Amino acid sequence: MNVTPRRVVFLGAGAIGCFLGAHWAAAVQAAGGRIGLIGRDATWAQIGAGPLRLTGGTAADTDLSLLDLHDSPEALSEADLIVLTLKSIGLERAIEEIRAYAAEGTPILCLLNGVSAVEQLGAALPAHPVIAGMVPFNVVWASGNHLHRSSAGQLKLERTPVSTALAEIIAPTGAPAELQDALKPIQYGKLLLNLINPINALSGLPLHAMLCQSGYRRIYAATLREALRVYDEAGVTWQTVGPLSPRLVQWLLRLPDALFNRTLLRLQKLDPASMTSMAVDLAAGRPTEIDAITGEILRLAAAADCPAPINSALYDLIKAQEAAPTPQQGHSAAALAQLLRL
């Protein structure tokens, strides 16, 4: 049985999907395959005639002729590997589209945030093998044809015959993958990092500028400490994602500004202008991924009968802003700490 993916189709091709697809396109074509991207009309309308420029890490320019751009999920019928790079809030719709258009047995590589999407896909689409994956970095549209990777890390994939074949093809590209025998501990590790997202969304600041301020760092430290307690009570097995353990980070976040900014902040290699996707979504009036991120901590807390008041309050604040006619960002660290009763 040939497990090498030839026709790789991204469903939900936003910044992450277009970045990965553009980096992989030449290598996949050299292996006799093709990259397809299924995205929104608005995404394709902003791309001009020139190549896609990829920066941050290994830079590249990808000619659009190497990519098949689609605005309809009907293109799933051509796939022998589906890569999900949409927001977690779009998972139910993606399941229906895969069920309607994809050939039975087509593997699905799930790169969604959170830890429960793989199980949801497996339960809803039992005829499709589901491969877990984790993207540790952020990608932003710098302009119409320019995608910029604004943080560090390497793509992680659950080890299967299909993912092993894919990893061999994309190894020489600017977005290679590292294979892991067990991915869920890594997903739980990334979830701890993502707990900064609601704080960043409520601050309205670029992530780098926010982390330069000790007040916001103390809020994140308290959020992280509470989540680690939930993990301990729930018996969660997790693995550090990034250069330092969150158990150490929760203390380093309390360092004075001058010392923190010269040490830990530099290790993060953050782009000065980058914001979390939750901050961008909230500013645009779109639903956020709060349920897949902070909501997962609250589900674990409830199951373990472990209080999580800080994460619960952050969840409620984001939900309130999602429901507001005009979301209010720009909360100062002092104002946010007061709302969280810190």
At a glance:
InterPro entries: 6-PGluconate_DH-like_C_sf, 6PGD_dom2, ApbA, Ketopantoate_reductase, KPA_reductase, KPR_N, NAD(P)-bd_dom_sf. The chain has 342 residues and is an alpha/beta fold.
Write the layout of secondary structure elements.
Layout (H helix, E strand, L loop, with lengths): L6 E5 L3 H16 L3 E5 L2 H6 L5 E4 L4 E3 L4 E4 L10 E4 L6 H11 L6 E3 L6 H8 L5 E5 L4 E5 L2 E4 L5 E4 L2 H10 L6 E4 L3 H11 L2 H7 L3 H5 L2 H21 L11 H7 L4 H6 L1 H5 L8 H7 L10 H11 L4 H15 L9 H7 L3
Parallel strand pairs: 1-2, 1-6, 2-5, 3-10, 6-7, 7-8, 11-12
Antiparallel strand pairs: 3-4, 8-11, 9-10
Helix pairs in contact: 7-13, 7-15, 9-10, 9-14, 9-16, 14-15
Q: Which terms summarize this structure?
A:
KPR_N, 2-dehydropantoate 2-reductase activity, N-(1-d-carboxylethyl)-l-norvaline Dehydrogenase, domain 2, 2-dehydropantoate 2-reductase, Rossmann fold, 16 helices, signal, 342 residues, alpha/beta, eight-stranded mixed β-sheet, single chain, 2 domains
Number of strands: 12
Q: Compute the CA-based radius of gyration.
A: 20 Å
Order of helices and strands: EHEHEEEEHEHEEEEHEHHHHHHHHHHH
Fraction of residues in H or I helices: 40-55%
User: How many DSSP helices?
Assistant: 16
Structural class: alpha/beta
CATH class of the largest domain: Alpha Beta
Mean pLDDT: 93
Shape type: globular
Spatial strand sequence of the major β-sheet: 5-2-1-6-7-8-11-12
Keywords: NADP, Oxidoreductase, Pantothenate biosynthesis, Signal
Function: Catalyzes the NADPH-dependent reduction of ketopantoate into pantoic acid.
Enzyme class: oxidoreductase
EC number: 1.1.1.169
